[in-house]
Design a protein that fits this description.
With 119 residues, the protein is an all-alpha fold. It folds into 2 domains: 46 residues, no CATH class; 45 residues, no CATH class. It has 6 helices and no strands. The chain is globular and about 50 Å long.
């Protein structure tokens, strides 16, 4: 997940942009690991995907609705647990801190994927 965050921060627009980042040995040294290949990054993302969940959500749309939100897959639920654990660890570092700000970035990322629906 860190690698995807770095890709986004560096202005990457697609998985193939990992190849450019992999060409920077200083970046790998700085973060302590190599960045994934475009293929490995794509396989990681597809591990969270299940066609059946998408088909179910698509069938449950009301007439005239274009968008749908599928039920979480088991791997995606696991990623959610990792995220909760990470937030908890940050909380343990500052036990007296009671407020946190979540910055919801309104960045628009253009997609050329044929299956992408309008947003």
């Amino acid at each position: 997940m860190e690698s995807f965050g770095l890709l986004h921060a560096a202005g990457g627009e697609c998985g193939e942009d990992f190849e450019r980042l992999r060409g920077d040995p200083g970046l790998a040294e700085m973060i302590g690991h190599e960045l994934p290949s475009p293929r490995a990054a794509l396989e990681f993302l597809y591990a969270f995907h299940q066609d059946e969940k998408l088909a179910e959500a698509r069938q449950q749309r009301l007439p005239g609705e274009l968008a749908y939100i599928p039920e979480e897959t088991v791997p995606l639920e696991g990623l959610g647990r990792v995220n909760r654990d990470l937030v908890q660890r940050f909380g343990e570092r500052a036990p007296d801190q009671r407020l946190a700000t979540v910055d919801q970035d309104a960045t628009i990322i253009e997609s050329h994927k044929q299956q992408a629906l309008p947003t």
